Amino acid sequence: xxxxxxxxxxxxxxxxxxDPILGVSEAFRADTNEKKLNLGxxxxxxxxxxxxxxxxxxxxENLMLERGENKEYLPIExxxxxxxxxxxxxxxxDNPVMKEGRIATVQGLSGTGSLRLASALIERYFPGAxxxxxxxxxxxxxxxxxxxxxxxxxxxxxxxxxxxxxxEGMVADIKAAPEGSFILLHGCAxxxxxxxxxxxxxxxxxxxxxxxNHIPFFDVAYQGFASGSLDQDAASVRLFAARGMxxxxxxxxxxxxxxxxxxIGAINVVCSSADAAARVKSQLKRLARPMYSNPPxxxxxxVANVVGDPALFGEWKAxxxxxxxRIKNVRQKLYDSLMAKDKSGKDWSFILKQxxxxxxxxxxxxxxxxxxxxxxxxxTKDGRISLAGLSLAKCEYLADAIIDSYHNVS
Amino acid sequence: MSSWWRSxxxxxxDPILGVTEAFLAxxxPDKVNVGxxxxxxxxxxxVVLECVREAERRIAGNLKMEYLPxxxxxxxxxxxxxxAYGENSEFIKDKRIAAVQSLSGTGACRLFADFQKRFRPxxxxxxxxxxxxxxxxxxxxxxxxxRSYHYYLxxxxxxxxxxxxxxxxxxxxxxFFLLHACAxxxxxxxxxxxQWREISYQFKVKGHFAFFDMAYQGFASGDPERDAxxxRIFLNDGHFIGISQSYAKNMGLYxxxxxxxxxxxxxxxxxxxxxxxxQQLARRMYSNPPxxxxxxVSTILGxxxxxxxxLKEVKVMAxxxxxxxxxxxxxxxxxxxxxxxxxxxxxIGMFCxxxxxxEQVDRLTNEYHIYxxxxxxxSMAGVTTGNVGYLANAIHEVTKSA
Lengths: 410, 402
Fold this sequence. Notes:
heterodimer; A: 410 residues; Aspartate Aminotransferase, domain 1; Aspartate Aminotransferase, domain 2; 2 domains; 7-stranded mixed sheet; two-stranded parallel ribbon; 16 helices; 13 strands; 46% helix; B: 7-stranded mixed sheet; globular
C-alpha cells in the first residue's frame, strides 16, 4: 500500500503529559495573581526572589572572555581540568582513590546526563540488574532508568507519620533486594524530602550494602549547598570510599555554582583498580558518543577556573555559605510562623530537621492542589516545596496557606 | 576485594576522535592533522569567528543562568528554522514545525532516532554507504534496525546514482531514509539538483520518510540558501521531513554543542504534540540543553549586522577550503601522478574521499606523520598553503605504485 505524502507519519502521536516538575513553572508563569509564589522547581532565588548568578561565575566568565579561548570540541570525556577538579572536590585531593588512579570521571550533562550515562553502563554490563530508588525520589530518576531500560524498584524512605526517615524500612528493603543490585542514594539534601540519614545511619546503610554485595550509586546534586560546607556534604560518599567500596557517583553544578543552564556535571566510578577505572572510562565514552559526541565546554571551563584559582575558590565557598545560610534562615522563619499561627499543637519541627533546598511538607495531593488553586502557591503534587523560592517576607503568607490546606482539606 | 567491572573490556578507540588523540601525542614537527572535521585557518589554527566573539562580549557576565525550557531557546530555534526552511517559510508561519534545541547534530540525530523507535517501533533506518561513523552508533544505541543504501561509487569517486535509485525503489513503502543535505560526510559527494529532484519524486512514489542531516549549511558552497537546496526541493514536493541542524562547523561553535531537531507536521496541533514528545525524550537524557551556545546563535542571527558578518565569515571559510582543493589537486598533478585526482575538486564541503586504502593511510601516518581516518577521508579544513605541498608529496609517494 502506498502512503501518500499528504498524511504525516506521525499522525497518531498524542500530547505528552506536562513534566510534573518543570510544568509547575510554566503554570506559575501563566498565573496573573499578584500573591503568587513559585515553590516548584529547585532553582535558588535571592530574598528578592530573583535568580542569582554567582559573582565568581561572572568573574570566571570575564576571565574566559579576556583569554579568548577557542571553541574546539572537548574530548568525549570532557575537559580534563574539570574532571580532575570535580573528582577532587568529591573525594578530597588527598584521597587514596585519587592517588591510585582508581576513579573514572567523565564530564556529563549535569546530573541528569551523568545519571543517564551511568544507567546506560548498568544496562550494558549488568543486564537484568535492578536499581533501587528511594520512595519518594526526584521525579526524573525513574524516567531516566525507564528510557535506559534499566529495571528499578523502590526502598522505603519517607515515613509520613514522623515526616522523617523510615530507617528500618530502608535497611530491610535494601537487605531484601537481589544480591548485586544498585542502590541509588542521595549524597546530601534528599530530593524531595530534605531528610538525610545521620552519620550513624550511613554506617549501617554501608554495612548492609556490603553484606549484600550491592553497588552504591550516589546522586550528588547539592554538595556545598546543603550545609554550606563542601566537605561536610561529601561525608556520605567519602565514608563509602573509605571502606574500599566500588561506587557510582553522579554530580551536578547546577545549584552549588548556579550553573543550571550550562548543564555541567560528571559521572564518577570508583573502582578497585586503576586498570578497571581505565576500562570503565573508555566504555562510558563509548556510550556518550552516540548521545551527543562530546559535552559542552562553557560550564566546564567556569568550574575549572573557579576551583583552580585559590581566590575564586574561596569566594565560591563564601557565596555557597550565603546561599545555604539564607535557606536555613527561611526554614527558621517558616517554622516560627507555623508554630505561632497553628493552634492545633502540630509539631512542625521537621521543617528545621530537614536540609537543603526542599522540604516535604507532608501535604497530600489534594492539599497541594489547594495550595495552588486557593493560595496561588506553586509546588509539586507530592507536597514538596522549594525553600530556595521562598523569601522571609513571604513566610507568613505561606504559613497561612499550609495551615489552611493541612487542616481544611483532606 | 574483586571488582564489579571485570567484564568491562576496553572500548575500541573512536575512529574519528581517536585520530586527533594520536596526532596530539606525536612529537614530530612535520605532523599534519587532516583527521577530525574542525575548521583551521591557513596557519592551521582553530578559528573563533568575529561575530561569535562580538556576541560573547554582549552576553558575558550579566545573564541569568536559569534552566532553558526542555525544548531549548525559542529564539535560537526560530532563527535556525528560517535557515533550513526559508526566511519566509509558510511552515514556520503556520507553526507546523515541531522543533527543539539539540546537543548539536549528534544530539538531534539521537533524539530523532529515539523518537522514531518510540513512535514507529517497526521501522528501520536506511543509511548511505558510507556515512559518518557515529550515525551507526546513534541508531544502534536507539535500537532502530539499520539497512544500507548505495551511495559512493569507488570507481568514479562519485555518486552511485543508479544503485541509489534502485535501493530507494526496492525498499518497502514508507521506509525511513537518512540523507545528507549537503557536503556528504565522509565522501564530499553530493547529488546534483536534477538528481535530488529525481530522488524526491521517487520518495513520493514510495511514501518514504526523509530525515536530513544538515551539518554543513553555508560551509559547502559558501551560500546557506544554496546549501539548503535539497531540503527545499523536498519541501516543495510536499514531503513531511525531519532535519538535524548543527552550528558546530558553520559558526565554529563545536564545543558548545548547539543545534536543532525539527519535524514537519500536518498542522499546528500535531506539531505541538510531537514537540512535547521530543521534549520528554530530552528530559530523560539531559533535562534541558546548554544555554551559552544558544545565546551566541540567537544574538548573531537576531542582529542584522552580526548576521551579515557571519555570512561573510562563512563564505571565507568555504572559499579557503575550495582553494585548498584546487591547490592539492594541482600539487598532485604537478608531481606527475598518473592517477586521476579530479574528485578532489568535484567533491564539496569539508571532506575529500581520497580513495586511499587503509594500508596507504597507515603509511601516511607511520612514515609521514599525516593523520586521517582509515577510510581515506581527508579533512580539507586541515590543509594549508604551508602543508599542501608536503601532503601532496606524501600522497603521491604512497600511491605511485598503485
